[in-house]
Structures are given as C-alpha cells and as structure tokens.
Design brief:
The structure is a homodimer. By secondary structure, chain A is α/β, with parallel strands linked by helices. Chain A folds into two domains: 5-127 and 305-334, Alpha-Beta Complex (Quinone Oxidoreductase, Chain A, domain 1); 131-280, NAD(P)-binding Rossmann-like Domain (Rossmann fold), CATH 3.40.50. In chain A, 25% of the residues lie in helices and 25% in strands. Chain A contains ten helices and 15 strands. In chain A, the strands form three sheets. In chain A, strands 3, 4, 5, 6, 7, 14 and 15 form a seven-stranded mixed beta sheet that branches. Chain A starts with a strand and ends with a strand.
Chain lengths: 335, 335
C-alpha cells in the first residue's frame, strides 16, 4: 500500500462574525492504516452550507460544537478506496459528514452509499438528492402545508434550498414570491424558475415589496433569513399562516445577541405559527422526496444549479459566499 | 317608561404606556328609545382583561381599534330590561361586548344568553364559563397538546387564565410549573391549586428558576407574557416542544417597539413551534369545554377565584391591576 497524505482544514479559532482565514489551520498528515470495520474515503466534493457557521461556535447546537483542533465538519461525497468493512467496497460512492479534508476514515456510521442514477451528476447528491432537496421538500410540504391558490414567500430564494422551495410551491399551485439580493438573481427566479414575483431587498424595502407582491397577504413563509424579513412577513400574514423556520442566516455571524421579531404578537392576532425543523428528522422518509424530486427533474418542472469552487484550499474563503449571498445555487468545493 | 340615565366611560385619548385616568371621559346620557329588533341590557359585571389595552391603540388588531369618543369596549354580563327582539325577554341574562357602561342597547349580534346553572355565580360567566375558561381549555389542550408526564410551564400563572391552565395541566398528568410575581401567589398555586413548582420572577432569575423546576426540560409553554420569559423558556425547550401563545402582556403597555425572543433559532434546533390562537375561533366548540370545566369544578379538580372591584367609576384604575399583577383571579367590576 502506498502512503497517502491527507490534506485537511482544522478549526483553529472560534470565529467572530464571518469566518476568517485565521480561524482555520491547514495541516497535512499521513493517512493511517485501517482497522477492522473501517473504510477509507477519498473525498471528491465538499458541501458548504450556512449551518457550518453554527457548528464552529463554542455552543452545541443540534450537533456538538466542532472542537478546536479538529478537522472542520462538513458534508461531502467521495469514493471508497479501501475497505475493511463488509458493507463497502472500493469504487463505492458515499456521502456523509466526511469533513473538510481529502481523505476520511469512517466505520460507516452516518454514511450512506450513493445510488447510481443515470444522467445525474455526482454533485446532485450534495444538492437536489441530498439534504438540500430533503430540506426544501419536507420543510415546505410537511411544515409549511401550502395549498393551491395560497401565497408563498421564500427568503434567500436564489439559494440552494430557496430556489427549490419556490419551484415546489409552483408545482403545488401557490403564488410564489421570492426575496433575493440582486436583479440578476430575481430575473433567474422569475424567468427560469417560474416564480410569480420577486423582491430585491437591496433595492426595495421588504415590507413595501411584500405589499406590492402579496396583495392577498401571506399564507406560507419559508424562512431562511429571519431578522427584518421575518418581521416584515409577520406584519402581512393571513389568518392561519404557517412560517416554516429553516434557519436564520441573518444571525449566524452576529457578534451580539440579535433580537427576535418585534411583530411576534401577530401570531396571536392571525392565529398563526412558526415551526422549526431539521432535515435530519426526515431521513427515514428520504425515498419519498427523492422519488418526487427525480420525477419533477425529468419532467422539467424543477431546475437547480451548482456553484463549484475549485480546490479544498479555497474552502475557508468560499464558505463566506453563503453569507455575502454571492453564490449562485448549491455551493460545493471540488476537492 | 321612566327615563333611564346611562353612565359611561368613553375613550378620550390613545394611551401611552399604561392607562391613565385622562385616557377616559365619564359621560352621562339618557338611554334612547329601543327600535325594532333591539334590546336594552342593564350591565351588572364588567370583565377587565389584558386585551383591553390593545383595543385602545390606534391600530386595528383582531378587532377594530376603539374609536376616540366611543364607549370603551369590554365584555360584560347584564340583565335584559326591555326587548323589542323576539329572542330576548326582560329578565334574561346575557353576555357580550356590552361596553364600559351601565346600559347597553344591542340588536343581539354577538350576544349570548346565559344558561342558569344552579350553584354557579353570575361572575363565573365572565370567567370559568366564559372566554377565560375557553382560552385556558383550548389554548392548552388544542394548541399546546400536552401529554401525561410532560413538563408544562405557565406564565402569569396566578392570573385568571394561567391558574386554570395549570390545573387542567395537572388533570392531563403534566408536571406543572407556574411563574408568578409574589410569594403569596406562588403559595396559592402550589398549596391550593396543586402546581408542582413555582418561580417568583421578582425574586429569582427566570432562567435559573426554570433550570431548578424543569430538570427534564420544557415540553409545553402556555405563554401569556412574552419578553424575557419567552426567551428563557426557548433556551430550555425539549425536542418537539409546543409554545401556545395566548398573549404578550409584557408588551401591551410598551411605548417603543419590543424585540422578540433572541432565542428564536431554538425553534429550529429543537424542532419546536410557537402557535398563536384566539378564543373567538373556538366559540363553536364552547359546549365541550363548558361541560368538561363544569364537571371538573363539581369534582373539586379545579378552583378559581374572582377579584371584584366595586363601581363602574373604578374601571380605568382597576384595569391597570392586570399589568401590575396585583389582581388575584379574574378581574371584574361590579357595576
């Protein structure tokens, strides 16, 4: 066996605000021998997601905080190169929290084998057929409960999740309004993805944009952002509205406590709800979502795009594209 | 027909912070002749509720704002003295939004006739068998969905609604923790009403009190207060927790926008929800709640108390007891 060298990004400091280069340390080390039950994965694509920022804080969230000095946690897909685990053989492709590194050794816990779907590129397993697709599908349909004819608002609408949510909303028969941060993104949403209307929050006050685009009020809000957007949405919700709380990207880099919506009492006035969810709770129902998403993709009813950054070295800088809003589609690093 | 003189409190100014005497104007006027379809009600008891404060603001809520110069809106019960409406006859007792006045003329819309329940005092129809009982019953059972063995937190626990919520929670089999503002109230909750534990928020930090009293975390929160309490609750909710949002009394007198909970992202981390409700949505299901509450009352499983203030003249000052927390039980004015 030739000796392999692993290249890794380790968490070196707790970030304050957005990630800085100095929050990570680039290390190299020899890949150790496998023990019984382990497999060696050569990572091919690393998924960058807003939730990465939360994992780097000192406080545990839905997963334990990444410890200082550990390899940074991240979803990835890779190819099995060696295996002492009977469930995997060299050449299998797998996905899981394989980390910001070139090689990962795992005993298979939390890892899943990728099906070989003709015509579907490998990166789709980090997006449409991965946690992104599941998040959009169940976060909208199960938590948001949209009905035909209702008005759906999607924040971070040009993001990987938001762009899928809006398209699923159209399939369900909703009027879909997307909030995004550039005219180019807004054009993509309406012209390519079929959104009914958009708000460029850098050019228009969100509350005024919502009045303009949601003349019948808001029935469902798929909320990725929080902050000012959530407040503006709450002011215009209809009776029985549902806010599906996917995340609050506006807060992930905050260095001081961020107040919640000033308009929360609107939940009482409009008998409405805010409900949080995590995609991990829907893993046992993944097949249903994958089947539907695959069918819609084949039928041309949904489109998605991937923003590929070349080189593991770029990961610490690339991840901030999510918070600048400068990525176009699912952000991945080609390792 | 002898001429009757009506004594009334009219809204004279939009309150800033708590109600002041000068926000109301005391007027007297002759009661006019009834028209066809109308009835004349001699009000006996006026209900004072936290929501009164919101009605006095310029902004419409779930009901239109009370207009300056109009008789202040309020729930009341009274006796029909004259009727030109075939559905009512003199001697009937009715309840509805009859206003802060001695006499009300109505065409019967939104008014309901009170059943004569032996052994139940008239004031119970403003409390246990009125909107208070319905709010507690459906706000807890329908919105909060408590299960036996779960931990239920009730804010404003010594209030009219909160004290019922806690007792219903015990009937359902929950561990019940009440938050109140004096040792006397806390004693009443544990010794008389059977709450498992209490937090006197004037003596103990709420987050520490919750840690002390909810060692297994919080499954259901019946939230009357909002603000700091809601933040502290969110920090300690369990997976799948439900927050039933009844009101946010901490904000009703605010003169500046009040931020929502800083911890809202906990809804995502814990896959939890905040759901608002209004008792008016449950009016068509009132019979179920009244039957259950009546049975529990007879069985000695629930107790309630009424805080009676004498004299309509006192209403503007008495209503602030709700915001000072100085009332003990359902606050009513005997007219």
């Amino acid at each position: 066996m030739t000796e392999r060298i692993n290249r890794q990004w380790r968490l070196a400091a707790r970030p304050v605000g957005r990630f800085k280069d100095s929050d990570f340390k680039w290390t190299t080390e020899a890949v150790p021998q496998l023990k019984d039950g382990e497999l060696l994965v050569h990572n091919r694509y690393l998924s960058l997601d807003p939730t990465n920022r939360g994992w780097a804080n000192e406080i545990d969230t839905y997963l334990p905080a990444v410890r200082l000095g550990d390899v940074m946690r991240g979803g990835a897909i890779g190819e099995v190169e060696e295996s002492r685990n009977p469930n995997y053989k060299p050449g299998d492709f797998v996905s899981g929290l394989l980390g910001w590194q070139e090689y990962a050794i795992t005993n298979g816990t939390g890892i899943s084998k990728l099906p070989n779907i003709p015509g579907v590129p490998m990166t789709a397993h980090l997006g449409l057929f991965g946690h992104i697709g599941l998040t959009a599908y169940y976060g909208l349909l199960d938590v948001g409960q949209p009905k035909a004819g209702e008005t759906l608002v999607v924040s971070a609408a040009a993001g990987a999740v938001g762009s899928l949510v809006g398209q699923i909303g159209k399939i369900v028969g909703c009027r879909v309004v997307g909030i995004a941060g550039s005219d180019e993104k807004c054009r993509w949403l309406t012209e390519d993805l079929g959104f009914d209307a958009t708000i460029n929050y850098k050019k228009e006050k969100i509350s005024e944009g919502l009045k303009r685009t949601c003349p019948k009020g808001i029935d469902v809000d798929f909320e990725n952002v929080g902050g000012e957007i959530l407040d503006a949405v709450l002011a215009q919700i209809n009776l029985g509205a549902r806010i599906s709380l996917c995340g609050m990207i506006s807060q992930y880099n905050a260095t001081e406590p961020v107040p919640g919506p000033y308009n929360l009492v609107m939940l009482v006035v409009r008998r409405a709800r805010i409900q949080g969810f995590l995609v991990s709770d829907y893993m046992d129902r993944a097949a249903e979502a994958m089947t539907a998403l695959g069918r819609w993709l084949m039928e041309g009813k949904i489109k998605y795009r991937v923003d590929i950054v070349e080189g593991l070295e770029e990961a610490p800088r690339a991840v901030n594209k999510l918070f600048e809003g400068s990525n176009t589609g699912k952000l991945v690093v080609k390792i």
